[in-house]
Write a structure and sequence with these properties.
The chain has 492 residues and is mainly alpha-helical. It has helices at 14-30, 38-41, 45-56, 60-72, 77-86, 91-101, 110-123, 136-150, 158-172, 196-213, 217-226, 260-272, 280-283, 295-304, 344-351, 399-426, 429-443, 471-475; strands at residues 174-180, 187-193, 251-252, 256-257, 321-324, 339-342, 355-359, 366-370, 375-378. The chain is globular.
Length: 492
């Protein structure tokens, strides 16, 4: 029978030999990330990625995935030893393992890791000659079956998740402008299907045009398409890390972090549009003698806090007033450190001396002190609240921090989809909304998909009544009528 081996490592097979050299090469580049302690040693993850990208020419996303996948092996010693000896797993296998295990969060116990380690090592150890290498779908399924036992709160249905994401993307890529008459009989509806960034650009242009011409957005859209009016110029605000290259991450208010398709659209837009760069770190130190903040100040404050800073308020900061925490007439400066977004209601609460807030410069938390002697804490929710602190200047993070944040986000989404899976069974909207809200509060993240009750089934037809009325009673004919007596009333 001979020694057992996988088909991809078939002796004296030229193609198998080539594939083995590919795997050997990836291990030579990324294998050291699997060594325990490497995560702490890599002080700046972004610079590490750039160095590999410049040396290999590979894509940034591919490199990051490879690093994460090999770093996962730090917690799987048996599988790491097997891979170091045989390189039987390719990048697809390693990615599949890492992506699913990340959904358990950054605090997986050593006992749980031991169970995964034993199962995966056994799976990737051949038992016969010419055995087919396990498929990624098989690996994913086996890990998910174990997750059901280890942490049922993360055991969502992958098929339903794909369906929800597809539906959400379809909705995000559509912008509609609708106008109805008072009677409800006349309706103008224009729907544009595109990527989220382009949809936002169109929306901003139509909104600015509608305001200039004092009309509805629907009418403005129709007039723009018909050529009756020209679009009003507007400004699109985009937040990016310093030194961003084409294809890098970007955040647009009202859209969020851009999808790959939207990122391509952004790069095309940046190549032709007039660009004004504002350094957020410098703007944090800016001030003006005027009571009214500059537009740049407003943007940096809205990036720091995406919502009203009152605990539990969901009003977007771009729709809020900028409050001088220390009143302007009491010596408070017009500078971002003294400006915070408050909606009209909670701005009035502060003005009426029913509450006052104190920000923590280190954590970004905001402590509210109320006149009745109680207090509440508002957690930071902004785009740059963490990144503007001294602990993490310019988005700098080591590999361990990046992996931990990535696993936290993956666990958050896994738990969210498990809640929606349960909702599909019990249809208790109030319960699902409460669970999602508690999850968002726990992780400080926003779950993008909400529970929606299914449309009611069509009413069953009533077969007890005939589908058509009885002509005898409908037309009032006598019981014993003579058709010959009927008169032809048609005109000659």
């Amino acid at each position: 029978m001979g020694e057992p081996y996988f088909r991809t490592q078939r002796p004296e097979d030229p193609l198998s030999a080539v594939s083995q050299r590919f795997r050997d090469g990836y291990w030579e580049v990324f294998g050291h990330f699997a060594t325990p302690g490497t995560s702490i040693a890599i002080d700046d993850f972004d610079l590490e990625v750039v160095a590999i990208k410049q040396a290999t020419g590979w894509g940034k996303g591919e490199i990051e995935q490879a690093i994460f996948s090999h770093a996962r092996l730090q917690h799987l010693p048996k599988l790491r030893a097997l891979q170091a000896e045989t390189r039987v797993m390719d990048l697809q296998h390693l990615r599949a393992i890492d992506n699913v295990l990340a959904e358990l969060g950054p605090d997986i116990t050593e006992e749980a890791y031991g169970q995964f380690d034993a199962m995966l090592t056994l799976t990737f150890t051949p038992t016969r000659a010419g055995q087919l290498t396990p498929q990624t779908a098989t690996i994913t399924r086996r890990i998910r079956e174990m997750i059901k036992r280890i942490d049922p709160t993360c055991a969502y249905n992958p098929k339903r998740r794909k369906q929800r994401i597809a539906q959400a993307h379809a909705a995000d890529d559509t912008v509609s402008f609708e106008q109805s008459a008072q009677s409800g009989t006349v309706k103008t509806l224009v729907t544009l299907a595109t990527n989220p960034l382009t949809a936002q650009v169109v929306r901003e242009h139509v909104l600015a045009t509608a305001r200039e011409h004092k009309t509805s957005m629907a009418d403005a859209m129709v007039k723009l398409l018909s050529g009756e009016i020209t679009p009003t110029k507007t400004t699109l605000h985009v937040f990016v890390p310093k030194g961003r290259e084409a294809g890098g991450p970007a955040y647009v208010p009202g859209v969020g972090a851009l999808t790959p398709e939207a990122t391509v659209a952004l790069d095309d837009l940046l190549a032709s549009a007039k660009i004004t760069e504002v350094d957020m770190e410098q703007e944090l130190q800016a001030h003006t003698d005027s009571y009214t903040p500059t537009e740049a100040m407003r943007r940096v404050v809205c990036a720091r806090h995406t919502h009203c800073v009152f605990p539990g308020c969901t009003m977007p900061s771009r729709l809020c007033q900028l409050d001088h925490r220390i009143a302007f007439n009491q010596g408070g400066k017009t500078t971002p450190s003294n400006l915070f977004p408050l909606c009209q209601k909670h701005h009035n609460l502060k003005t009426d001396k029913r509450g006052f807030y104190v920000p923590d410069p280190d954590t970004g938390e905001i402590l509210w002190l109320f006149s009745n002697g109680t207090y509440e804490t508002c957690m930071p929710d902004g785009l740059i609240d963490y990144n503007t602190q001294a602990a993490a200047p310019r988005w700098k993070s080591n590999l361990e921090q990046v992996c931990a944040r990535r696993s936290t986000v993956a666990q958050f989404y896994a738990k969210g989809h498990k809640i929606l899976d349960d909702f599909d069974n019990h249809h208790n909207l109030e319960q699902a909304d409460a669970q999602i809200a508690a999850l968002e509060e726990e992780y400080g993240l926003i779950f993008p998909i909400k529970a929606v009750l299914p449309e009611p089934l069509p009413k069953e037809p009533d077969y007890s009544e005939p589908p058509f009325p009885d002509p005898e009673y409908d037309y009032g004919w006598p019981e014993n009528y003579d058709p010959a007596e009927l008169l032809d009333t048609r005109p000659q």
